[in-house]
Structure formats: C-alpha cells, structure tokens
C-alpha cells in the first residue's frame, strides 16, 4: 500500500470512531498526537480506537488526543482534515459501533488498561487547577514552534559538522542563515501564538513582540542603559503579547464601533509597545539571564546530584502537569546558548522507563498479553515516545513506575556528572528524546564527545531501570497475580495488526 493510501486509511479508520465528521469541532496536531475538539465525548469508541494499527494510545485532556507518533501524525492529519470536510459536505457520519468484546484471555493486560485509564482520569481532575491550566496554555504557545526548532537545530548541527571538517565552505554560510533565521525571529512567533491563545488578535501580538528583535531598539535607553535587539527574548515576547491582549480587549469594550478599526490596533501597539520598550525588555532580559546563569551554576556545581534529582523527578512532574513550566525555560536556554542543557538530563526518564519495561517483560514470562504490549511499545520508547509504556504497563503496576524513575535518576546523574566536569551536553531543540535526540545534540567539546556522553547516559538509564525493576519492582502477590498464562485471542492480534496492543495507553508527555 502506498504511503498516502496508508495514511488515508488510518484517518478513515479513526473518523467514525470519534463520532464522525459532525462530531469534530477542531483539528490540530503536535509532535506525536492528533488533537481533536469534540462536540460529544460519549460518541467516541476508545477501545476500538486503540485497536487501530497506527494508534499508540489515546488521552483526554483539554482536547481528545490520539497518539500516532512522530512523522505519522503530520501525514495523517491532512488526510483526516480532508475526510472531515468531505463528511460535513455530505452528511454527518453515523455513530460508531462498539468494538469487539474483550477476550477473557487478555484479562491481565485489560486490567492494567483499566487501572491506567482510572489513573489518567484522576490525574486530569487534579491537573485542573488554575496554575496547571495556565501552564497548559503556556505549553500551547510553544508546542507549535517545535517542528521549526527541530528542523533548524538539525541544520545547525550539520553546519557545525561541515565547518569543523572544512567541507563545502561555500554552502555553510547558507546553512547558518537557515539555522539562525528562525531563532532570530522566534519572539515574533511567540507573540503571535500568545495573543491567539489568550483570545487576542494574533497579528497584533506578533507586531508588539517584533519590537524586541528590531535592530533599532539599540538606539533606545531604558533604566540607564542602551537596549539590545532581542533583549528579553521569548519571555519578553510572551509578556508583551499578553499585555497587548488585555489592552486590545479593553479597547474593544470602550472604543466606539465606528472607530474600532483605527483606534484599537493603534492603541494596542502603542501602549503595549511603550511598556515593552521601557519596562518589559529590561525585566525579561534580567530574568532570562538569571535562568541561564542558574542552569550553568546548577550543573557546574551540583552536576551529578542535580542530574539525579531532575532525571528522577521528571516522570512525576509529567504526571502532575508541572513539566509544562520547563518549556519556556528550554526555549530561553536555546535562544541564549544555542542549546538547552536540561533536556538531555530529563530525557533519561524515558531511558529508565524502557529499562523498567524490559524488566517487566522478563519477570512475567507467562503473561503473553502484557509481553505483547511491551514488545510493541518498546521501539517507540527507544525513540523517545514512552507514553504507551507508562499508562499501559509501569504506572498501573505501581512499583515499576517508581523503579523507572530510579533508572531516570541514574541516567540523569551520569550526564550531570559530565556537565560538572566541564563537558556540557545539550539539545538544540525540544520535543524529541531517546535515540531521536542524537541529531539535535550539541555541546562545548565536539559532537563525538557529546554523543558519547549522551549514549552513556541512555545505557545507564536502561540498565538502572532494568535492575531496579527486576529485583525490586514486584511484590510476591503482584508477581503471582500477573505471571500467569494470558495468550491474547487471535481476533485481538488481528485487530491490532501486531504493531501495538490495545493496552498501549495514553501519553504522559515524555
């Protein structure tokens, strides 16, 4: 089957299971997930969706999210959008039929699936606090920027390699321009997305944020010093755009409709622009500098310990929804230093998860249902998509989730130690982890050294997660309960097509 036909078939399989075209209110995608706004959540057939071969899992958050994996989601989404348009033009799609009843032979994995779903629901309820909802909105601003960060980051790495080798010297300046152009104007994109997220006019948010990167600000003095183009960076752009939204909304309430088209955009840019130039740029610049200084200090002085704590706590942070606060910090470090030293350490949480899943596989030799889930999800886990393993395996089992955190802690400590010794390991973009992070690695001692340290951290994370789970991940009762023969039914295997089990659950955002 051609790639286009395969992607369209996946989209066609998903659409009726989410209630048809008439039930879809919005469509978007991020790195790994198709995000759908739905009119009626009750029309969704979760179990049948999880049985679609290309679907790695589902999660319900502010939108209904279907995990398809990197690359696949970007190809399936346009096909899905086209099918929705066609369905709306014709007639509402019929409500989905129920999927096949679960086979008793897969009860063990289904029990884990049910526990994972319950934990997801509890986590969602706990995450619906004002702080976490705010952090989610911040994440919504930066997530659409990730593809450009990745593309430009890889080009920057390629350019650095060619410069070091002295190859294609006539091409490297062009590559440098491609890699740096987006980062030079990232504040504008942040301003645009911020205004869109907070309910303002996106282009006005971008216009105010553009002041930050305009070279002419070098002629302006604020707080007794000359401003620098880019001062305040993405944090300044975020603050400027939020201010612009509030000014715009105030204008919409008080400016007469006949004058709105002239007065509102003018006052929005004027007021927000003046506050940005004579306040926000300086304050945000100080905050951005402090973030970079603190990150360098933390890893230079407490490298191994800091890496151990960060790597060990990242999965719980994901469960609490607090990891979204790190996204602007990563972006600020990339903007300042060219890479974020935090991401490779946090990526070790995924390594611990992979090691823990491998240990569960060996500790449950008779449970073919869970073992099939692990075999299907491990390749994605190695590439940094650890979501199916978390809710489908480790978290419902309890102890293996804790021992996976132990693996992440040791992997993070390994990389943190080398940072303390002067070998910085960073990523030029956010989003990927696992093996997928190798093309984005950067540091202060060459790509070979940086890649070797990161690979060492992965191996340590795998090994520590495996050993901790193998020896401490199961109580006697838990082992007796799950280490029983559970051969999945032929119908279940046929439905999944082999690549994923129906129990590969929803993401935790790793």
UniProtKB/TrEMBL annotation:
<dbReference type="InterPro" id="IPR001996">
    <property type="entry name" value="PTS_IIB_1"/>
</dbReference>
<dbReference type="GO" id="GO:0008982">
    <property type="term" value="F:protein-N(PI)-phosphohistidine-sugar phosphotransferase activity"/>
</dbReference>
<keyword id="KW-0812">Transmembrane</keyword>
<keyword id="KW-1003">Cell membrane</keyword>
<protein>
    <submittedName>
        <fullName>PTS system IIB component, Glc family /PTS system IIC component, Glc family</fullName>
    </submittedName>
</protein>
<keyword id="KW-0808">Transferase</keyword>
<dbReference type="GO" id="GO:0016301">
    <property type="term" value="F:kinase activity"/>
</dbReference>
<feature type="transmembrane region" description="Helical">
    <location>
        <begin position="259"/>
        <end position="284"/>
    </location>
</feature>
<dbReference type="InterPro" id="IPR003352">
    <property type="entry name" value="PTS_EIIC"/>
</dbReference>
<feature type="transmembrane region" description="Helical">
    <location>
        <begin position="339"/>
        <end position="362"/>
    </location>
</feature>
<keyword id="KW-0472">Membrane</keyword>
<feature type="domain" description="PTS EIIC type-1">
    <location>
        <begin position="136"/>
        <end position="488"/>
    </location>
</feature>
<dbReference type="GO" id="GO:0005886">
    <property type="term" value="C:plasma membrane"/>
</dbReference>
<keyword id="KW-0762">Sugar transport</keyword>
<feature type="transmembrane region" description="Helical">
    <location>
        <begin position="451"/>
        <end position="472"/>
    </location>
</feature>
<dbReference type="InterPro" id="IPR018113">
    <property type="entry name" value="PTrfase_EIIB_Cys"/>
</dbReference>
<keyword id="KW-0418">Kinase</keyword>
<dbReference type="Pfam" id="PF02378">
    <property type="entry name" value="PTS_EIIC"/>
</dbReference>
<feature type="transmembrane region" description="Helical">
    <location>
        <begin position="199"/>
        <end position="218"/>
    </location>
</feature>
<feature type="compositionally biased region" description="Pro residues">
    <location>
        <begin position="93"/>
        <end position="103"/>
    </location>
</feature>
<keyword id="KW-0598">Phosphotransferase system</keyword>
<keyword id="KW-1133">Transmembrane helix</keyword>
<feature type="transmembrane region" description="Helical">
    <location>
        <begin position="141"/>
        <end position="162"/>
    </location>
</feature>
<keyword id="KW-0813">Transport</keyword>
<feature type="transmembrane region" description="Helical">
    <location>
        <begin position="304"/>
        <end position="327"/>
    </location>
</feature>
<dbReference type="InterPro" id="IPR036878">
    <property type="entry name" value="Glu_permease_IIB"/>
</dbReference>
<dbReference type="GO" id="GO:0090588">
    <property type="term" value="F:protein-phosphocysteine-N-acetylmuramate phosphotransferase system transporter activity"/>
</dbReference>
<dbReference type="GO" id="GO:0009401">
    <property type="term" value="P:phosphoenolpyruvate-dependent sugar phosphotransferase system"/>
</dbReference>
<feature type="transmembrane region" description="Helical">
    <location>
        <begin position="174"/>
        <end position="192"/>
    </location>
</feature>
<feature type="domain" description="PTS EIIB type-1">
    <location>
        <begin position="8"/>
        <end position="90"/>
    </location>
</feature>
<dbReference type="InterPro" id="IPR050558">
    <property type="entry name" value="PTS_Sugar-Specific_Components"/>
</dbReference>
<dbReference type="InterPro" id="IPR013013">
    <property type="entry name" value="PTS_EIIC_1"/>
</dbReference>
<feature type="active site" description="Phosphocysteine intermediate; for EIIB activity">
    <location>
        <position position="30"/>
    </location>
</feature>
<dbReference type="Pfam" id="PF00367">
    <property type="entry name" value="PTS_EIIB"/>
</dbReference>
<feature type="region of interest" description="Disordered">
    <location>
        <begin position="87"/>
        <end position="107"/>
    </location>
</feature>
<feature type="region of interest" description="Disordered">
    <location>
        <begin position="491"/>
        <end position="510"/>
    </location>
</feature>
């Amino acid at each position: 089957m051609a790639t286009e036909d395969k992607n369209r078939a996946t989209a066609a399989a998903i659409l009726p299971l989410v209630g048809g075209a008439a039930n879809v209110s919005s469509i978007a995608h991020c790195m790994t997930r198709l995000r759908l706004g739905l009119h009626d959540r009750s029309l969704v057939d979760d179990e049948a969706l999880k049985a679609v071969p290309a679907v790695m899992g589902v999660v319900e958050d502010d939108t209904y999210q279907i995990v398809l994996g990197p690359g696949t989601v970007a190809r399936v989404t346009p096909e899905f959008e086209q099918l929705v348009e066609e369905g709306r033009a014709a007639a509402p799609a019929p409500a989905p039929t129920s999927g096949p009843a679960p086979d008793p032979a897969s009860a063990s994995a289904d029990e884990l699936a049910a526990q994972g779903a319950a934990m997801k629901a509890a986590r969602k309820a706990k995450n619906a606090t004002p702080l976490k909802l705010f952090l989610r909105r911040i994440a919504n601003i930066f997530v659409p920027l990730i593809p450009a960060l990745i593309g430009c980051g890889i080009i920057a790495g390629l350019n650095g390699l060619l410069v070091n080798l002295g190859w294609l010297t006539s091409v490297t300046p062009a590559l440098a321009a491609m890699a740096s152009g987006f980062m030079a104007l990232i504040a504008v994109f942040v301003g645009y997305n911020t205004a869109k997220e907070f309910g303002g006019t996106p282009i006005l948010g971008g216009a105010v944020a553009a002041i930050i990167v305009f070279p002419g600000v070098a002629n302006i003095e604020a707080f007794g010093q000359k401003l620098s183009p880019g001062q305040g960076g993405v944090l300044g752009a975020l603050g400027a755009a939020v201010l612009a939204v509030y000014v715009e909304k105030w204008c919409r309430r008080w400016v007469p409709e006949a004058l709105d088209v002239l007065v509102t955009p003018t006052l929005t840019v004027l007021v927000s622009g003046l506050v940005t130039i004579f306040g926000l740029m300086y304050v945000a610049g100080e905050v951005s500098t402090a973030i970079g200084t603190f990150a360098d200090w933390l890893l230079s002085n407490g490298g191994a310990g800091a890496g151990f704590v960060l790597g060990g706590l990242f999965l719980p942070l994901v469960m609490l929804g607090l990891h979204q606060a790190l996204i602007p910090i990563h972006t600020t470090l990339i903007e300042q230093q060219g890479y974020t030293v935090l991401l490779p350490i946090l990526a070790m949480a995924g390594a611990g998860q992979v090691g823990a899943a491998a240990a569960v596989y060996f500790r449950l030799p008779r449970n073919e249902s869970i073992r099939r889930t692990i075999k299907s999800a491990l390749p994605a886990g190695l590439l940094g998509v650890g979501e199916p393993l978390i809710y489908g395996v480790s978290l419902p089992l309890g102890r293996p989730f804790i021992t996976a955190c132990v693996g992440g802690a040791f992997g993070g400590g390994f990389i943190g130690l080398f940072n303390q010794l002067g070998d910085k390991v960073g990523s030029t973009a956010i989003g990927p982890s696992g093996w997928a992070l190798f093309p984005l690695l950067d540091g202060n001692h060459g790509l070979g050294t940086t890649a070797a340290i990161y690979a060492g951290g992965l191996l340590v994370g795998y090994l520590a997660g495996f050993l901790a789970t193998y020896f401490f991940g199961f109580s006697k009762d838990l082992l007796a309960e799950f280490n029983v023969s559970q051969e999945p039914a032929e119908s279940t295997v046929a439905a999944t097509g082999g690549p994923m089990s129906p129990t590969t659950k929803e993401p935790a955002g790793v």
